[in-house]
Amino acid sequence: MAMKTEVEADKRRKIKIPSGGTIKQLLRMPLACVGLVVIFLVIICAIFATQIAPYDPLMQHAGHYLESPSSMFLLGTDMLGRDVLSRLIHGSRVALLVGIASVGIGSAAGVLIGLISAYFRGWVDTVLMRIMDALLCFPSLVLAIGIIAALGSSLINVIVAIGFGYIAGTARIVRSQALSVAEKDFVTAARAIGGMNLHIIARHVWPNCIAPVIVLSTLGLAFAILAEAGLSFIGVGVQPPTPTWGNMLYRAFGLLDRAPLLSIVPGVAIFLTVLAFNFVGDALRDVLDPRLRGR
Amino acid sequence: MIPVLIMVTMSVFFLLQLTGDPIRMFISTGVDLDAEQIEVLRHELGLDRSLPVQYGMWLGRALQGDLGRSTHTGRLVTDELKARLPVTFQLGIISWIISGIIAIPLGIIAAVYRGSKLDMFATVTAISGVAVPSFWLGIMLILLFSVALRWLPPCGWVNLWDNPIESLRYMAMPVLSLSLAGAALNMRQTRSAMLEVLMQDYIRTARAKGLSERTVIWLHAFKNACLPVVTQMGLQVGRLFGGVVIIETVFMIPGMGRMMVTAIFGRDFLLVQGGVLIIALFIVFANLVTDLLYAYLDPRIRYR
């Protein structure tokens, strides 16, 4: 299998531990700065949604249906007379929440599996990696649809479903990184002085695996936001009335010929947010771990 | 290969366990059974046995083409799948080919003329292509080509064999929206692989001995840059089938994806399970082909 070549390439990989210098280097890259600014804005929108949004996103303004942008409704109103801008701002909450939570769960599980696999080797490694290989055979959206079909759709289930698809990739990268770290002299030394497994993994192996995980998570966030929007769009994601960018598109799709703006605006929001995370992720990778390029 | 197949089928089988009480997934909608009848059915389906036994029974039935019946239509899941599969595969495979045909030459040109306007254009497209949600791109295409220009039908499906020209008109927008993200990734991969190869000494040697630039690029450089591109194209298969599910909903295409989505709403779990299984098996197959291609392209892997 192709894994062998990967492992060899990984052995040559320089190991970097993220530090304050990383941020300085990032700030010197123009695209990364643009990305960071956009992400910062989205985070502000999500945290202070109620303060920033001009209206309650669920409030239906009677008599103002499908209005075009005006000074009263900056981005117009939807079919129920709700302010599109306010819904857009509130939609950032679900996008970020699902993104962060699913990537968090997925990474945590992936890191754990990867570390255990690499450190204990043998049958533990074989079994875990075969399971990961199998998981990789499910496109994450298809897996998510399967999980949601079984569990029903709710915020938590969407998070779990998206996060699940993210475990295998992380586990494999962490494993290959940890394998090369575990061979280093300082790990042998730690073993020689009688360090406990858990201690060695936590103090010596893991810190040297952080860099690829950070890169992967940033890019994973972009993907998770896309996935959430996709699931909401087909109606199995976070359910209305909670505004999400995906379900705004879902409701607007039927009115495409009458109110195209309703379909354009949420898409632009998704695009810019995902683009921003990609910018930062790419830049982080160039700084921390150039070997990951192209993954 | 075999362990992966076993794990894949196990995971799909496990999905049913996630539903809580699997028996409910076997009872047709609208049919009312009393507790005793449910117990009989449970016994008939083997749901009162231990999980490993159940898995064995399920796998045995699956191998014979029995994945249960749709609780909605009462038809066999395999029959439903058979009707939908060709549509999804036609869509997925054509998009996959297109994403390669556009991307690889563009990536090569971008690498050869590094820093040119074309390279800039290619890089910007590649970066933004990954960030556009494919279903939104689909919606925007409908807005442009169906609503504004009225050139293409907004939704629907015609089989390629029935009427090729009509079929292409229906397929144009779904294929374009599906292939953009893949094309973007393929292009980036091709470009960076080519850049790396073009810096090698043997390229300078090839040029120094007076080979034409075309020979150098295609025979010497691209052949060696192929490997990561093949990996990327292999990974694309999975990504595409994830996207197909949503794109089919946008364009109302009667494929497997839309079937699975409608099945979710109808609580028709076995249909979803069947769809997930088929897609995963196809990807196992695609991975196998990728690995074989690897060995073919890189003799070093063969002789290890």
Feature tags:
heterodimer, A: 295 residues, mainly alpha, 71% helix, 0% strand, elongated, B: 304 residues, MetI-like fold, 12 helices, 76% helix, globular
State the order of secondary-structure elements of chain A, H for helix, E for strand.
Answer: HHHHHHHHHHHHH
Bin the strand percentage of chain A: under 5%
- Span between N and C termini of chain A? 17 Å
The CATH fourth-level homologous superfamily of one domain in chain B: MetI-like
Gyration radius over CA of chain B: 24 Å
* Class of secondary structure makeup of chain A: mainly alpha
Overall outline of chain B: globular
Helix content of chain B: over 70%
* CATH-assigned fold name of one domain in chain B: MetI-like fold
What is the residue-mean pLDDT of chain A, rounded to a whole number? 84
Second-tier CATH architecture of one domain in chain B: Orthogonal Bundle
Oligomer: heterodimer
Number of helices of chain B: 12
Average pLDDT, all residues of chain B: 85
The Rg value of chain A, from CA coordinates, equals: 22 Å
Question: How does this structure look, described?
Answer:
The complex is a heterodimer of chains A (295) and B (304). Chain A is mostly helical and 295 residues long. Chain A is 71% helix and 0% strand. Chain A has helices at 3-11, 20-27, 30-47, 49-52, 84-120, 122-136, 140-151, 155-182, 185-192, 197-205, 210-233, 245-253, 260-288. In chain A, helix 3 (30-47) packs across helix 5 and helix 5 (84-120) runs antiparallel to helix 6. The two termini of chain A are 17 Å apart. Residues 1-13 of chain A have low confidence and may be disordered. By secondary structure, chain B is mainly alpha-helical. Chain B has a domain at 84-254: MetI-like (MetI-like fold). In chain B, helix 6 packs across helix 7. The longest helix of chain B has 38 residues, at 213-250. Chain B is globular. The relative contact order of chain B is 0.13. The chains are: A mainly alpha (295), B mainly alpha (304).
